[in-house]
Write a structure and sequence with these properties.
Strand content of chain B: under 5%
Largest interface: A-B, 77 and 80 residues
Largest sheet of chain B: none
Distance between the termini of chain A: 83 Å
Helix content of chain B: over 70%
Low-confidence stretches of chain A: none
Number of strands of chain B: 0
Radius of gyration of chain A: 23 Å
Shape of chain A: elongated
Number of domains of chain B: 1
Distance between the termini of chain B: 39 Å
Number of strands of chain A: 0
Mean pLDDT of chain B: 94
Oligomer: heterodimer
Order of helices and strands of chain A: HHHHHHHH
Radius of gyration of chain B: 17 Å
Shape of chain B: globular
Strand content of chain A: under 5%
Number of helices of chain B: 6
Mean pLDDT of chain A: 91
Largest sheet of chain A: none
Chain lengths: ~150, ~120
């Protein structure tokens, strides 16, 4: 087919632009996030039920569950599965606490060549650090407000 | 079984909501922004007393997402204030989340030593 500029009428051009745009995948992303995120939470509930059955109270049960989930997230990141999952799952792999473990391991692994002190030791907090900083800040502020309201 | 189903549903919905926020806001939100937002948001909701009902309803569906981490921080801080006064405001949040942070450091370090990053495909 011969190429001529006459074929690029505004209508044709708009259709061409539309075909080159990335497909709207918002619905698909949301569905993936729902299923993967839901599965991590269901797994967490299963682990939690196990700890309660073992005789832990609700508070310790939640902490022990978090520990197991962090291990699972860290291990899956180590063997390269978690990041593959994350490509599809998006927020489904980011929001659960396994995503926090993923952030720690992924950055620590990436900067291993910079050494064990300033590579692994420092860079493992690239993403987890801000989370701890803002978490600590908000908990202390909340504690202070609560204290002032008590007295 | 019912508990697990409820955790799946509510936990899934929280992730779905966050995914929509990521996709529909014009500014680029990175993993760090999302996580900081969830933890801080969860802590504030928890302090207002709005997060606990969700935990009662959904169990792990509310505690496994990082907003549950924020909930643990806030509840820990307030409980410690009850026990120790002003000092509790400083210690409570970190104490309540110590297990999560310590395991993240321990396993994060171990996995980073054991494994190497996979080549990008």
């Amino acid at each position: 087919m011969a190429f001529s500029f006459e074929q690029w009428t505004p209508k044709v051009y708009r259709r061409f632009l539309q075909s080159m745009k990335p497909k709207r995948t918002i619905a698909k992303n949301a569905l993936w996030a729902f299923f993967v995120g839901g599965l991590f939470c269901a797994l967490g509930q299963g682990i939690h039920n196990f700890w309660r059955w073992q005789g832990l109270n609700a508070f310790d049960g939640a902490a022990a569950t978090a520990a197991i989930l962090v291990f699972i997230g860290a291990f899956l990141t180590g063997i390269g599965v978690y990041d593959q999952l994350g490509k599809h799952a998006g927020a489904g792999s980011l929001v659960p606490i396994t995503g926090f473990a993923n952030a720690v391991v992924a950055s620590a692994m990436e900067f291993k060549r910079e050494g064990y002190v300033f590579g692994v030791g420092a860079k493992m907090f690239t993403i987890a650090g801000p989370v701890i900083v803002y978490g600590c800040l908000s908990s202390v502020v909340i504690g202070l407000i609560y204290f002032l309201r008590m007295h | 079984m019912e508990q697990i189903g409820m955790a799946f549903l509510i936990g899934g919905l929280i992730c779905l909501a966050v995914q929509l926020v990521i996709d529909l806001t014009p500014v680029t939100l990175t993993a760090g922004h999302v996580m900081v937002g969830l933890v801080t948001g969860g802590a504030v909701l928890s302090a207002l007393g709005w997060y606990e009902p969700l935990v009662q309803l959904a169990g792990a569906g509310a505690t496994v997402p990082l907003s549950g981490f924020g909930h643990a921080l806030a509840q820990g801080a307030m409980r410690s204030v009850d026990e120790r006064g002003l000092l509790g405001a400083l210690s409570g949040g970190i104490e309540a989340t110590a297990v999560g942070v310590a395991t993240a450091v321990i396993f994060g370090y171990t996995m980073a030593v054991l494994f190497d990053p996979k080549p990008k495909r």
